[in-house]
Amino acid sequence: MVHRPDLFRSVFGRVTLSALLVSLLSTLALFLVVQKIVHDDGRAMLAREVDTDLAGLADIYVSSGEGDLKDRIADRLSVDREDGERSWYLLADADGRPIAGNLPRWPAIAPEVSESRFVRLPDGDTMFARATQLGSGAQLLVGRSNYRGQALIARLVMAFAVAGAGIALFSLAAGHFAARRLRARVGVVNATFDAVRAGHITARAPGAAGHDELAELAANTNAMLDQVERLIEAQRTVSDQTAHEIRTPLMHLDTRILRAMESTADAELLRTLDQSRAEIRNVVRLLDSLLDIAGTQAMRGDLRGLADVDLTDIAESLADLYGASAEELGIGFHARITPGIRFRADAMQMTRLMSNLLDNAFKYVPSGGSVLLALTPGPHVIVQDDGPGIPPADRERIFERYVRLDGARGGGHGLGLSLARAIAERHALSLHVEDAAPGARFVVQPEDRDD
Predict the structure, then answer these.
(1) What pTM value is reported for the model?
(2) Is there a domain that residue 174 lies in?
């Protein structure tokens, strides 16, 4: 089973967060655009109102003089506006000293260029004002508050905040829903790979009949698994055919040599023919071992052909067999076998696994030494001897084909441990060697997998 990544490591989580981020940024961008439009429109309205009032007061100054202008400013200041906005007026001399109006001093605004802009007042208020020069060096300023614009901006902020939160929640929910659907469809493909890895080689990903990218992924997955299954079957067929095509002529040759031996009394010829027969049997054993290794490796993870077997019974049978051989060789043999251990496996292959490890131990342990066979739940199989041991540099190399260390008793092709590891891996087990101090300890145990 594949671990599900966290939100920030998951592609679907990042897609959901990206959708959320895009919606928030889009909302913010829209708010900034609307705010700019409202601000510019409000400023234009204020400018028209201020300019109209300023132009009217300037005409009064030109037509009626300063006294009448002061009266009109006073009249305007005495009127309370129904819209709640405030007005500011200031008539000042050439030096900026107030003559009339409700501003105590001339603000930082240039009348000589008829400047207009927002000005912050000492009491914290902000007004939009325009200033201009009148005849005789007098200066006139007219200002308006922007409470309505500020209130509108505040309402816009609140509206966009609420709308942004709603859009964010909707985007998050929609993204989460879409991501869940995508994750479920990808999870089906991953589950198919998990099933194949667990041995169900015929498992296939559903949903390949659709027309989107994930359906294409499922179709490609199924096509690949079909090809893998065909390759496995082809390898098995080739192995079987190769074994038959090579073994059969060798057996015929052995039979013809045997007949030749029966028809001659020449001792030298008989010895030569007997050596030839031994070489033929040696080649057949080598061929069988190589085919067994290749076939077993091809079936790695394939549960077909496996059944619930009694490992205890297999280990006890081997213990009886090797116990008798140990007595003849002067080797102490000990067995510690837990009863009732069952495992889904190929009984013949598990027998070969344990027997190959025992054969290896008996090859290297000297007379007077000892060999241990242990079986515990897990299953854990241990074959230990007190022979010369295996150097650390060779503890992985010994599982390669044709590797034989010095000091072995008897012949062999160096394929026994390679076959033992292939059998272990075919059953989701691991095989490694440890230092037994003295000697070597071969350990078979379940593989460590990330579930």
Answers:
(1) 0.49
(2) no
